[in-house]
Amino acid sequence: MSITRNDLEDLLEQKDSPCVSLYMPTHPAGPEIRQDPIRLKNLLKETEQQLTEQGIKSTDARIWLEPLSKLLEDEQFWRYQDQGLAMYVAKNWHRVFHLPLSLPELTMVESRFYLKPILPVFLYGGTFYLLALSQNHIRFFQGSQDGLQELHIPDIPRSMEEANQTAGGEQSLQWHTTAPHAGDQRAAMFHGQGGGDDEAKSRITKFFQQVANGLHEFLHDAQAPLYLTGVEYLIPIYKAVNTYPHIKEEGVTGNADEKSLHELHRQIWPVVKEDVDRGIEIAKANCKELLGMSKASNDLKTVALAAQEGKIDTLFVARG
């Protein structure tokens, strides 16, 4: 399974010493797959030695590591790997995580779990939201680096037809798309019995107001960024009525009605990653400026004290 922030909190709370942390690269395909169980076997031998050096009997060390030893013969487990494997063992407790980044081959036996190798996951692993705009099918997703999960919100109308029924049977609004005029974008056409694009836009605006209101109630005090996807005409209409403060300017244009979860994630993830990378560069520049003003520090003791006092705004951690 992939790792979440809740998992990270669980790992931080474990205090039953010794805490065993094992990391290794894995391979989702290719001949290297056969070498991965051998790599784990060698890591377990090294871990057993570290445990015995800390005064644990060899037989007890093997019992301690038994949940991981069982993986050596589990063909199904090795068949579905990502780029890295993170494993944690404490007394009567263990967790195994498949991670989307290559990890060092490493084992540590300490009083707390050694978590530095997995921190890059949370750099891009935070939650974001994606709202797929359409007259026919509004969809809302919670996403991460790993994929999208559709969320169903009762207070949001799923379509223009549903919104019209809720509003008391207003005239229905139809839409269709014409062939693309430039690139891959498709022009949106609206028509109804009331006449005119202005009236069509007004109806879309009212529909999106219902969506935005329901979304605002659902998200409440959430702080995750919200991205939009949909035909180009719809995005500025929604932004005009949006009340969620963390909506992003970036998004993906195009008809989202027929796109699968995988396709939507494939298109939005580069946008999210670029947004995060931009934020990192801004934070780096700010840190450099603050260092010159003595409002930032790279002294470990000063940083540790600031952490205890809750005075850290942004923390940079060296790789490796």
What CATH calls the topology of the largest domain is: Nucleotidyltransferase, domain 5
- Element-level helix/strand string: HEHHHHEEEHEEEHEEHEHEHH
Q: What is Rg?
A: 26 Å
Overall 3D geometry?
A: globular
Uncertain ranges: 169-195
Major sheet: 5 strands, mixed
SSE inventory with pairings:
Layout: H1 5-13, E1 19-25, H2 35-53, H3 58-64, H4 66-69, H5 75-79, E2 84-90, E3 93-99, E4 106-110, H6 119-124, E5 128-132, E6 139-144, E7 147-151, H7 160-166, E8 174-177, E9 188-191, H8 197-219, E10 226-230, H9 234-241, E11 247-253, H10 261-292, H11 300-308
Parallel strand pairs: 5-10, 10-11
Antiparallel strand pairs: 1-2, 1-4, 2-3, 5-6, 6-7, 8-9
Helix pairs in contact: 8-9
Describe the structure in your own words.
With 320 residues, this protein is of the alpha+beta class. It has two domains: 5-115, Translation, Eukaryotic Peptide Chain Release Factor Subunit 1, Chain A; 128-274, Nucleotidyltransferase, domain 5. It is built from eleven helices and eleven strands. It has a five-stranded mixed sheet with strand order 7-6-5-10-11, with helices on both faces. A hairpin with a 2-residue loop joins strand 2 (84-90) and strand 3. Helix 8 (197-219) packs across helix 9. The radius of gyration is 26 Å and the shape is globular. The two termini are 23 Å apart.
